[in-house]
Specification:
alpha+beta; 8-stranded mixed sheet; 6-stranded mixed sheet; globular; binds zinc ion
């Protein structure tokens, strides 16, 4: 840490470059409640205290800068008014919006800030660079959908699917990752590395009107020619970069930002592929680098100068390739994920570049993700094949260490020696053996606080500090909900039935057997769901055969039924009691499940 180049202020110069105006006060409200407050991070102007890692503190100072910035002639960015950036490209008649933030209210505030400075230009098109909600959720703050909306092929399916299958679990874990319940203070939340945090306003979704389907595709929007590079399977399953040749400006979406990104985000997701990610960065350099004088992305600040751009992109490329290849090399020598994470050393030139540092992703958890991608959860050691679950294991460990007094004494010893990692393991066993043990809980909270405040990674810090918070104060209910009515409306019928299948309480449904045909009049589709052995099977376009119940309804009525509405007004043929028997075995997910306690 001591040899990090704190004297190099180039990032601060870049983050300030082109500053036009700030939002003042930097607070965005929705119906009276605050959905974004950048001013609450004013304390970051101070020197780094000993309750934070200096490298993360520095990243917070950079990310907290907010306002309207000129990127190059006719291209502006609104930064620091949500987790992500909104970019505005001026065309012949108006302005093209790239990535309208996460919330409608923040996007509207960003557009107003732009218009106050640049005139009341109409929005003439929108581009979604990829399928994550912080890049489309605010779209209704900038348009009603009457303009062209471009997105990479597969956008809509991926934009909504994450929220269907594991959405509740991801949202709960996201409250640990971003730490909205933490105080914003030198001891608490100081950012998430990628940006400060997520806004908490209204999430909208307008489906794209045009897909980008291949690399090299060119489109002209409002007189602005744009050349696209499709990059599926990188930071998001549907993502794209693009060049604006007339402005010599390159947009890298979220594929090259000023941090090491996640191969596997800590809230949970399908593991990403760093090999593909690196290859797309190579391709971007080949396709675009010699035609660009500035590169910008939907997080962080731009990089100017052709030579700087090539160096920046090449280091990002090498970063993901190195992590991938070295993990595989060590895997093939028999090392496991935790061992590789401990052994991995990064090349000095990458260590010295701030933008490869793990503020959001980390070497440690990315290496384990790569191991997981190729080999899965099992490290091959039969001792780990059939371990007890946490509570059962905790009871036994506590017993073996002489009961709780023994565990706490050992924990104090490791804590005093500075081995916080093992102290956390011991105290976690104590809490899982007896969740009412107040002393164990407060000691573990102390350990988590110290681990969090020592972390260079923003999301690690938040995870540890929220763990400490919940150990002492109980579960803090989530205020992040990434499912909005428009996102539910964008689900495919298959995704809708899948969302029902994953709510079936298996054992409760063991002895149920029923078949329902669903005729969707507005879509002119037929679907069949069959419940047997606790599994609800969905079949599109089934062969005619007798079923227990046939429902004739619209897509909207189907969504109503699945979200707990009544069956009033739905035409039926057969026994309506069958529908009641089906809904009786559906269980609601728990959005406030325990994490640091059993
Ligand atoms: Zn993003």
């Amino acid at each position: 840490m001591a040899d990090l180049p704190f004297g190099d202020r180039a990032d601060f110069d870049a983050a300030d470059r082109g500053f036009v105006a700030a939002l003042s006060p930097a607070v965005v409200r929705a119906n009276g409640s605050v959905v974004w407050d950048s001013d609450s991070y004013g304390f970051l102007a101070r020197e780094c205290p000993d309750t934070a890692h200096p490298s993360l503190w520095r990243q917070g100072q950079l990310c907290v800068k907010q306002g309207l910035y000129e990127v190059t002639d006719g291209i502006y960015q609104v930064r620091g008014l949500d987790l992500s950036n909104m970019t505005l490209i001026e065309g012949d008649e108006g302005v093209i919006v790239i990535d309208p933030l996460l919330s409608v209210e923040c996007a509207a505030a960003g557009l107003k800030l732009y218009r106050d400075q640049r005139g009341d230009r109409p929005v003439t098109a929108v581009i979604y660079t990829h399928s994550h909600a912080d890049h489309f959720g605010g779209v209704r703050g900038v348009t009603d959908g009457s303009v062209p909306i471009l997105a990479p092929s597969g956008f809509l399916e991926h934009a909504v699917s994450e929220n269907v299958y594991a959405g509740t679990a991801m949202n709960r874990r996201a409250t640990y990752m971003y730490g909205p319940a933490l105080p914003r203070s030198p001891e608490g939340q100081i950012g998430a590395g990628l940006g400060m945090t997520t806004s908490t306003g209204t999430i909208s979704l307008i489906p794209p009107s045009k897909d980008i389907t291949h690399t090299g595709q060119e489109e002209t929007l409002d007189g602005v020619r744009i050349v696209f590079q499709l990059t599926p399977g990188t930071e998001a399953p549907a993502e794209m970069n693009f060049l604006i040749p007339g402005r010599r400006a390159l947009c890298m979406a979220e594929n090259a930002t000023h941090n090491q990104h996640n191969i596997l985000t800590l809230r949970g997701a399908v593991v990403r592929d760093p090999r593909v990610w690196s290859r797309h960065l190579t391709e971007a350099i080949e396709l675009f680098a010699d035609r660009a004088e500035v590169v910008f992305a939907s997080h962080h600040w731009p990089t100017w100068g052709n030579e700087n751009i090539v160096t920046f992109l090449a280091r990002q490329r090498d970063l993901y390739a190195y992590l991938h290849d070295q993990t595989l090399r060590m895997m093939n020598k028999g090392m496991t994920g935790t061992e590789i994470a401990e052994a991995m050393r990064m090349p000095p030139a990458l260590e010295q570049a701030w933008h490869t540092h793990g503020y959001y992703g980390s070497v440690s958890h990315n290496v384990k993700a790569i191991y997981q991608r190729y080999l899965g959860w099992f490290d091959g050691n039969p001792a780990h094949l059939w371990e007890h679950p946490p509570v059962e294991q905790a009871r036994r460990y506590v017993e073996c260490m002489g009961g709780r007094e023994g565990v706490l004494a050992f924990a104090r010893r490791y804590l005093d020696d500075g081995d916080l990692r093992f102290a956390a393991s011991l105290l976690n066993h104590a809490v899982f053996a007896d969740e009412h043990d107040g002393q164990a809980r407060s000691m573990l909270a102390e350990v988590y606080t110290r681990l969090g405040q020592g972390a260079e990674n923003g999301t690690w810090r938040n995870f540890y500090l929220v763990g400490a918070l919940e150990l002492t104060g109980g579960v803090v209910p989530a205020d992040i909900d990434t499912t909005s009515p428009e996102m539910i409306a964008a689900l495919t019928i298959e995704q809708l039935f899948d969302s029902m299948s994953i709510r079936v309480d298996g054992p409760k449904a063991w002895n149920e057997s029923l078949a329902i045909d669903w005729r969707l009049t507005d879509l002119n589709q037929r679907h069949r769901t069959t419940l047997s052995n606790g599994a609800l099977i969905h079949q599109p376009d089934p062969r005619p055969r007798p079923v227990d119940l046939t429902l004739t309804l619209t897509q909207r009525q189907l969504i109503g039924l699945l979200t707990g509405g009544s069956a009033d007004g739905i035409e039926h043929d057969g026994d309506m009691d069958v529908l009641r028997r089906l809904t009786a075995v559906l269980e609601d997910p728990d959005p406030a499940f325990a994490i640091v306690t059993p």
